[in-house]
Amino acid sequence: MTSLGERAADDLAFIRDAMARTATFTAVPGAGGALMGVVGLIAAVVAFRQPTADRWLAVWLVAAGLAAAIGVTAIVRKARRAGLALDGRTARNFTLALVAPLAAGAAITYALWSAGLYSAMPGVWLLLYGTGVLIGGVFAVRVVRVTGLLFMIFGFAAVVLPQYGNVFLGAGFGALQAIGGIFIARRHGG
């Protein structure tokens, strides 16, 4: 037979676990997301002007690295300002949901580069980033899920119309990212 103290401890552990499962990841960066969108818009313009596909790819890879650094920094800063822990279950689930498709995208990008299939890259990038944002959005505010879905729509469009891939990249990683970031900053605290 369990004591009252053991029963209370078990009940408290159950309640904490239930709260962690239903918690929302609120450190999604609005201002950082908007800045990431600016990077995407600049990358679209600069990449469009490149004389070779390899240089086009290099522009987008540098922009992706810069945007990722901005995103991580913005998440950490927002979490610190709000007193949120980034080592909890919700933050880990959000991170895993986002990082797994991005890692797959890196591997697929290498395979496409090896085969010289540059025109397939925009669709893959938009679809996989959108997938990560959509799934990560399950642990975040609704606008994150909507943004992920819109990225996926741009990705499908880039697959169907590969000659406009750079335009869809600019629309997704530029305009959509910036608009989503501004919305989050205004409605969900920076």
Question: Mind explaining what this structure looks like?
Answer:
There is one protein chain. This protein is mostly helical and 190 residues long. It has one domain (25-187). It has helices at 4-22, 30-48, 53-82, 89-115, 121-136, 142-160, 165-187. The longest helix has 30 residues, at 53-82. The relative contact order is 0.17.
| Spans where pLDDT lies below 50 across 5 or more residues | 18-23
- Count of domains: 1
Number of strands: 0
Approximately what portion of the residues adopt beta-strand conformation?
under 5%
Backbone shape: elongated
- Outline the biggest β-sheet: none
Compute the separation of the termini in Å: 51 Å
Mean pLDDT: 87
Q: Assembly type of the shown chains?
A: single chain
Order of helices and strands: HHHHHHH
SS-based structural class?
Answer: mainly alpha
Give me the number of helical elements: 7
Radius of gyration, whole Å: 19 Å
